Amino acid sequence: MSVPHAPDLRFDVDAVVLDIEGTTSATGFVVDVLYPYARERFGALLAARGEEPEVARAVAQVRAEIGEADADAGRIENVLGEWIDEDRKATPLKALQGILWAEGFARGELVSHFYPDVLPVLRRWHADGLRLYVYSSGSVAAQRAWFAHSPEGDLLGLVSGLYDTVNAGPKQEPDSYRAIAADTGDAPGRLLFLSDRPGELDAARAAGWRAAGVRRAGEPYAAAEFGDHPEASAFSDITFSASSS
């Protein structure tokens, strides 16, 4: 499938909002490394730290979602495993994964993944004055750990804000993008969203944003139909009219 020529990928915006999985980073890393890491530790987390507010809140959300108010830790662990197998973007699952991943990154047991084209371009965009934000289904805690423990060290200084399904809302709902724009203070048309998922691009555009698809070989959405959204195969395809990027 062809990628539009460079003029279709030149934007006049003030900020770029990044999806992670399938866009900046390989889905395979999440599925093959991070998911098993969390799955192996859910039982211990629920058994030893079930009274911690963040863990207790997530457990209550799981019970509410499955309609089992008395579900014990074993049942919760099984449900979390089922949701992982379904690749379900459930908020309590993401919250508990985020706790475990953040601790794994902090201990040096995990190091995040970025496609080779991403970090040089993000550094250039940041240097050119573009503000960078992240909007991912992974929790803010997981996002923070992801950028703080990259193969090139702590990259949090590149990012002006982090958004997930808790502080912004579902990624295929236009209201979520309206909420992010309100929080950043940007006019919707001054924000560019990059994602590999057409439904997310549609939602962003419905909220008045600019949006571009990122099509990467081997990703689950590599053959997705982006409709009339411009698309790139690498971040280096994207340029900005107000910068030399």
Essential attributes:
six-stranded parallel beta sheet, alpha/beta, 9 helices, Rossmann fold, Transcription Termination Factor Rho, Rna-binding Domain, Chain A, Domain 1, 2 domains, 42% helix, globular, 245 residues
Verbal overview:
The protein has 245 residues and is an alpha/beta fold. The chain folds into two domains: 6-25 and 113-240, Rossmann fold (3-Layer(aba) Sandwich); 31-106, Transcription Termination Factor Rho, Rna-binding Domain, Chain A, Domain 1. The protein has helices at residues 27-39, 42-49, 53-66, 73-86, 91-106, 118-127, 140-148, 174-184, 198-206, and strands spanning 10-11, 15-18, 131-135, 159-163, 191-195, 210-214, 231-232, 239-240. The strands form two sheets. The protein has a six-stranded parallel beta sheet with strand order 4-3-2-5-6-7, with helices on both faces. Strands 1-8 form a two-stranded parallel ribbon. Strand 5, helix 9 (198-206) and strand 6 form a beta-alpha-beta unit. Helix 3 (53-66) packs antiparallel against helix 5 and helix 8 (174-184) crosses helix 9 (198-206). The longest helix has 16 residues, at 91-106.
Layout of helices and strands:
Blueprint: E1 10-11, E2 15-18, H1 27-39, H2 42-49, H3 53-66, H4 73-86, H5 91-106, H6 118-127, E3 131-135, H7 140-148, E4 159-163, H8 174-184, E5 191-195, H9 198-206, E6 210-214, E7 231-232, E8 239-240
Parallel strand pairs: 1-8, 2-3, 2-5, 3-4, 5-6, 6-7
Helix pairs in contact: 1-5, 2-4, 3-5, 5-7, 8-9
